[in-house]
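Private note to self, pasted from the team thread so I don't lose it. Backbone tokens:
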């Protein structure tokens, strides 16, 4: 089973910090050509550094909720690397929501950021993948010509009132994963997702700064007794991006240390 992604080109969104940054760095370290994409241009420039034409990394800053920005991201990737083989939709927004307040727009905002941005970018990138594969041997042999990976949360199947927006948007994202997997299977493009438990993301880091005791709550609610590192998640994403998962599509892999086996509602995932 080959887990190699050497020589492949990947777009990773949410790549300025946390999990997205860890995935983008991991892919680059494993020999992939990587476009780091995020809204935070200052943080991107700091993390990526000087953009050397001979380097296997570039960065793109912009608001991917805008359709034109999505088109510009793809164009920048093609200009830099000539193709795109992997898309990792790692950008996500964690919003607190009030389920009884009709003026609370957290659900709408979460759907826009966590679902629609990923859907539109997936559609644009998949179209490019199809174009690239039209005359290739892999398109004729049934081999995979592209892989799209969405980052979800175990909250997609859990309910926590204050995180209703995240739950709804991730449940929709997982159904989008299955729907796109069927729609794109005939084009030899695979679409899968990873449902995260407690990973040391940027949002969780902030939560633990506010409430250090929350770490104990998480660890006691996780059978493996710890919080995952972003690198551990990146390795799972690499598997889904590689030929090692070549016969997998429409799947949601749960990476939660056993959390969903006994997850109490009082200890939400982040």
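Design output:
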């Amino acid at each position: 089973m080959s887990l190699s992604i050497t020589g492949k080109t990947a777009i990773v969104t949410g790549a300025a910090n946390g999990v997205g940054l860890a995935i983008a760095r991991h892919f680059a370290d494993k020999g992939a050509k990587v476009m780091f994409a995020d809204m935070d241009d200052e943080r991107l420039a700091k993390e990526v550094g000087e953009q050397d034409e001979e380097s296997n990394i570039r960065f793109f800053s912009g608001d991917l909720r805008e359709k034109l920005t999505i088109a510009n991201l793809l164009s920048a990737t093609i200009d830099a690397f000539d193709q795109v083989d992997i898309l990792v939709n790692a950008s996500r927004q964690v919003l607190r929501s009030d389920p009884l307040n009709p003026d609370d727009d957290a659900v709408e905002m979460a759907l826009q950021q966590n679902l629609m941005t990923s859907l539109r970018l997936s559609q644009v990138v998949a179209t490019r993948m199809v174009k690239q594969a039209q005359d290739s041997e892999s398109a004729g042999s049934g081999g995979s010509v592209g892989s799209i990976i969405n980052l979800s949360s175990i909250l997609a199947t859990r309910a926590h009132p204050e995180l209703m927006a995240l739950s709804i948007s991730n449940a929709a994202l997982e159904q989008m994963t299955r729907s796109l997997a069927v729609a794109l299977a005939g084009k030899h493009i695979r679409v899968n997702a990873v449902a995260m438990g407690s990973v040391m993301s940027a949002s969780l880091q902030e939560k633990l700064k506010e409430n250090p005791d929350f770490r104990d709550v998480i660890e006691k609610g996780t059978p493996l007794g710890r919080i995952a590192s972003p690198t551990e998640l990146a390795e799972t994403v690499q598997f889904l991006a590689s030929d090692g998962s070549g016969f997998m599509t429409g799947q949601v892999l749960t990476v939660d240390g056993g959390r969903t086996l006994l997850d109490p509602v009082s200890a939400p995932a982040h």
